[in-house]
Amino acid sequence: xxxxxxxxxxxxxxxxQKEMGKNSGINRKSISFNNASKIGILFxxxxxxxxxxxxxxxxxxxxxxxxxxxxxxxxDDKEEKKAALSKNYSLKDLNWxxxxxxxxxxxxxxxxxxxxxxxxxxxxxxxxYIMALSKSGFRVGRNSNNTESYELMINEKKKDLAxxxxxxxxxxxxxxxxxxxxxxx
Length: 185
Prior knowledge:
Blueprint: H1 3-21, E1 38-44, H2 48-63, E2 68-75, E3 88-90, H3 103-110, E4 115-118, H4 125-133, E5 139-142, E6 152-154, H5 161-174
Parallel strand pairs: 1-2, 1-4, 2-3, 4-5, 5-6
């Protein structure tokens, strides 16, 4: 890694820590899937396969589970943006510190989702940044070095989105809002 990139990453981390300090009043807690009504989804729409699987999952959340779902799609190329995915950002929306800056990103960060999910298959500094600043009560993503971005990180053996969705469903449905009753001695 070049010296200039190391400096940029260090400055990015400093900026993120400063911005996270402003979010100290957010109540982060696990929530049962059944009690969650608002879900935010961040994903890479440049990958057609990923987009298709995520949109199928979104449709299932909306129709079968009656959840309010908001999406934020990432595109490698600004010209690639699709009208159907109205909330999006691209590499051109990242500043020199790799911080995404457009109205769709700010809107996604500011929504108080019950659950926010990052579907990126590989860690992206801008995706972790969005999740770290999200006003969501419970943030979920794949295993990442950016532990401040998530309450739940799923470590999967195979990098497969369908497998990740299956694990996600399993884990989210095991959380309870009420603590377990103490076991008799």
